[in-house]
Structures are given as structure tokens and as C-alpha cells.
Please model this.
Amino acid sequence: MSRLLLVEDEKNIRESVETALSENYEVCAFDSAEKAGKAMLESAFDILITDIRLPGISGIEFLRKFKTQNPDSPVIVMTAYSSIQSAIEAMKAGADEYVPKPFSLEELEIKARNLLQIKKIKEDKNLYAGLQDSAFGEIAGASKEIQKIKNDISKVSKNDVTVLITGETGTGKELIAYTIHKLSGKKGPFVPVHCAAYAKGLIESELFGHEKGAFTGADRSRKGRIEAAQDGTLFLDELGDIPLDIQVKLLRVLENKTYEKVGSNKSARTNARILCATNKNLEGMIKKGEFREDLYYRVNVFPVHIPPLRERKEDIPELAEIFARRHGSYLLGSAGKNALMSYSWPGNVRELQNIIERAVILSSGTELNVSGALGKTGFCEEPQAIAGLENMVENFEKNIIERSLNNNGYNQTKTSKELGISRTTLQYKIQKYSITVKNID
Model:
């Protein structure tokens, strides 16, 4: 969840904004720049929303300090003094958006979300720019499964067909998608969309864009990710989380390369290549009526499956060494290697990366402290017990969510507040655990 810093001296406005945005953001709210500055020194923030007129340090002065410490994080300024001069001054100081009071909370949330999406795209570009120069980036490993994947994507990358990448969470589906894009020679950008991160009402605008006035808060026309991927590649991660009504519109894009923005009746064309990924059983979802069969056949033109790390353990030492080299010259000793090979890796490659980073921190010399990173009791000793514990925890979480939904008459807003999670997170867990809901609000 993105961390949002809010600075507003008017209590009513501050509390209203905090309440409205806390469902989707971790909001830290303050009535002065001095207090916000202390919080800023302790941790980083993804976005700042600040009033211009503040007691003590002004909002413009504070945003300059914020940009110094958080140069890549966007800033929205609010003010009742909506003069052109104050807007110019704020923009010169580094503000990305300017919101004159009074404003709608929905408008403010849309602006914040759009700025964070732009920030995410920039971060993704920086991430991929840092990959190794070899053709296959960091798709590492000597297992026959990895060799087959490399062979498959080398063949399909030059053919402009849709690819469906499947595999458990953390196996590296986005890296595979980016490598296909890289090998394809596309001149446009690689644009990832993590479909599970958006509530049902937001994914349509995210994909297709919208026209000015299409809905409350749409004060300007906005590009969608499909348009942003022109001449490049659109990567739809967690495809199974796209609602059925949006699946119909996505099918049209795949079939004739046309789409319409929200609030528009004019068709636009795209030449973006579309790659998809999921950790769900789409065939099972089709049987339940949760995924369109015709869309499945359109996206599954060329399937690529990534086996979980536990099924290709011979790849672990090479992956571990790659992750370790990012932080310096660290060695993987025989004891550390044995510990890594003994663990079941329910979190796959992503979990391995986290463990190695932890081992680097705990290492006092050049040899990785793998046993310390795995824990004092040694997670690797009883992988089946760990997997069993995870199932127990998931079952417990599912029961709690089901009970809370029932107690709140299946009102998701009330349920998410009772559980202390965002509504988006609640919807994700409802889908994850296949929880039956009634009268969805």
C-alpha cells in the first residue's frame, strides 16, 4: 500500500481527506509542516498532498524539502487562494498537480492515483534498465525447465502473437514478459498493469483511459495503459482478476485492435502487443462462469508455464549468487547451499531474493549467513510443516473474513473497516479464497 503524507492545518478538511484516502493508502496526516518534516525524516513517502498556506513553514517551502528527500514522489498542492501566481509558484517548486478549494474528494483521489501510476511506470523502466545486458536478462538457471522457457520465448518473441504466462506467485512472470518485449525489438515502452491492484470500478479507466467529464472527478481526458503501450507491449498481470464486463472489451482489443475510452463513442486503434499472466486456473474459472472461454482462447495462443522453484532446485545456487552480487562480493558456502536446497520455497524466486538480501544484512564476513536469514530454528529443516502452517493460517484468515462479511450483511465497506484492511485488499482476498458473497455493495 502506498504511503501518503498529508499536511493541512484545517481540521475538517484534513480529517475528511484522511478518511477518504485511508481505504487505499497508508495516510500520515499532520496540521503543520514542522510535524510532517519529522515524520519525513524517519521514513519515505510515495506522495505528498499539502496546503500552500500553513502556519510556520509554508506548503511551498515544505514541498521543496519533500522533493529533496523524495525526488521521485509526486506532490499535489491544495489552496483556497487559487490565483495563477500561486499555481505557478507551486509548480516551479516541484508540484505535479494543483487543486483549488473547494474540491471533491473523488477528484483528489483520482489525481493521486494517476500520479502514483506514472511513478510506477517510471520505476518499472528503471528496474528493467538495470537488468543484465544478456539477451535473457536475469532468467537464470540450468534446469531443463528454464532452458525450455528460454527456447520458447526466443521463438515467440519475433512473432506478434499473444502469450499467456502461467505460474505461482513469485516465479518471475513479469520478468519473462519483459524479456519477450526486449527480444521482440519493439520501439515503444513495456507497460505493466497489475490487474489485481485495482477495484472493479477503476480497472476500465486504467486500461482504456477516459474522456473529460466521463465521471465525477474526471476534469481532463486521460490516456489508458493500452494507449500508453502504443508501439510497445502491454503486460496484463493477474489476468484472472479482470471483471467479466471488462473481459468483453478486452476481447475486442485482441480481435480487432480497437477500443473506446470511458465516456467516448469513438474507436481508437492500438498496435501494442499484449502479453498476459496469471497464477489462477483459468480453465477452472471458465467452468464456474468467472472467466470468458472465448477470451481464454484468444490470450492462450502461445502458453509459457514457469514451474515453482521447488520443482527446479538446481537453479537455486545460481539465482542466489545473482541476488548476492547485487550487494557486493558474497560467497555461498556449502552449509548455506544445503540450507537453501532443503527449503520448500512457497514464495518461489521472490522469497529467495528476500532471504538472500536478509542474509547479506546478517553476514559479518564474505560468506552469506543463510541459516541466520532462514531463522534460528532453521525453516529448511521441516518444509512440509511450514507449508502445513501456511494452509492453517490461510484457512483461519478465510474463516475470519467469511464471519465478518456475514455479520455485516455482506457490506464490503463495513467489513473492510472492521478488519482494518482496505476494500481493495478485501476484494482480493474474497477472490483468492473463492468466498461466496451476497448482495455485493
